[in-house]
Amino acid sequence: MIQTDILIIGAGPCGLFTVFEAGLLKLRCHLIDALPQAGGQCSEIYPKKPIYDIPAYPSILAGDLVDKLMEQAAPFEPGFTLGERAEEIEKDEEGQFILTTNRGTKHRAPIIAIAGGLGCFEPRKPPVDGLANFEDHGVEYIIKDPEFYRDKKVIISGGGDSALDWAIFLAEGVAKEVTLVHRRTEFRGHLDSVQKVMDHAAAGRIRLMTNAEVVEVHGDTDLQSVVVKTKEDGMHTLATDHWVPLFGLSPKLGPIADWNLNITKNAVEVDTFDYSTNVPGIYAIGDINTYPGKLKLILCGFHEATLMVQSAFKRIYPDKNLVLKYTTVNGVNAF
Ligand SMILES: Cc1cc2nc3c(=O)[nH]c(=O)nc-3n(C[C@H](O)[C@H](O)[C@H](O)COP(=O)(O)OP(=O)(O)OC[C@H]3O[C@@H](n4cnc5c(N)ncnc54)[C@H](O)[C@@H]3O)c2cc1C
Fold it and tell me: What ligand 1 atom has the least distance to the C-alpha of 16?
């Protein structure tokens, strides 16, 4: 059981900034995210795009913003449960929330801050018969830890940056054999990544199959082979340990929709006084919440996080006085 003061669902920019603001009040935070890395939309959708409306940064790449937020949060030693979806909430006899993830990890906290953005990013799954039987038995939709594929035969499907980047990474001394299967001949990823894949293919480190798609999966309990259909020369059966279809992720509100929260148009209703929801002890900040005048902007989520932790502090310590202090006076550890 992981115990913390504020359990944050979603490690996007708003969740990460909450760690800093809570840390100033000496509140500990633990973040849960369904994705294997922190950063939410900034890391998953547009890490290399510049953002122009972060105060004091005329321009900053979304990925760099996440690095800075991680650095700013680091002194407060947040905990992370990554690659797991927050699934069920209940209350124990002491009034604390017990949150269980889809992988069974249990967390306990007096306060829950939902910073779930657009919701969970669900993988787009290819329409292949029997696919579900091999999920976590050779079929994965996200690469969490490349070491998992060490000395294994891996087939990756997709034509975007993640498919290209992982094919390159695994081919450079990690996997035993890497095959990249793509429906078209053109790739959507960065030109330099496409060139690298071509170079690896020419050197025999990646087997490249274009105008091709995986149409069948076979095995007993674990995946043993897939059938690839190509436009030019029909069906090929390939023996493999893993098939990783990387066709992108689409956001869904997911389990949060079942937590008895007031929801309007896929967003959680909050009171703008402190961003509390209708369930005492549960707050919602960032893209996931809604209120009159709501703007889905990172800087608005930062403001919401700042006010929210003040209210959370008062809930946890109703008898303590909270006086606003400036970080410029004594640094971040003197609060
Ligand atoms: C292309 C693009 C460009 C943008 N440009 C700008 C810009 O210039 N300026 C700006 O201010 N904003 C911009 N935005 C919007 C900005 O990215 C969002 O406002 C911001 O990411 C919201 O942050 P968040 O922390 O609320 O949520 P997100 O960044 O969406 O993070 C939420 C996290 O919660 C996780 N999650 C959800 N449900 C669960 C669950 N049940 N269990 C576990 N984890 C869960 C998700 O996996 C996700 O990682 C842009 C967005 C896009 C897509």
Answer: 25
Q: In terms of Cα–Cα distance, which of 268, 248, 270, 297 is closest to 35?
A: 248
Residues with CB under 6 A from ligand 1: 9-15, 32-35, 40-42, 45-46, 49, 51, 53, 85-86, 115-121, 254-256, 286-288, 296-299, 301
User: What value does the CA radius of gyration of the chain take, rounded to a whole number of Å?
Assistant: 22
* Spacing, Cα 111 to ligand 1 middle (Å): 21
pTM of the model: 0.77
Please list the residue range(s) of the chain that carry CATH number 3.50.50.60. Answer: 2-122+250-330, 126-247
**Beta strand pairing status for 50-51 and 60-61?**
antiparallel
Name the closest-CA residue to atom 5, ligand 1: 51
Average pLDDT score, the chain: 94
Residue nearest to atom 39 of ligand 1 (CA): 120
Contacting residues for 326 by C-beta, under 8 A, at least 6 apart: none
Nearest atom in ligand 1 to the alpha carbon of residue 32 is 43
- The CATH code for residues 2-122+250-330 is 3.50.50.60
Instruction: Tell me the pLDDT tens digit for each residue of 154-210.
Output: 999 999 988 999 999 999 999 999 999 999 999 998 899 999 999 999 999 999 999
pLDDT of residue 27: 96
Residues 126-247, CATH architecture: 3-Layer(bba) Sandwich (3.50)
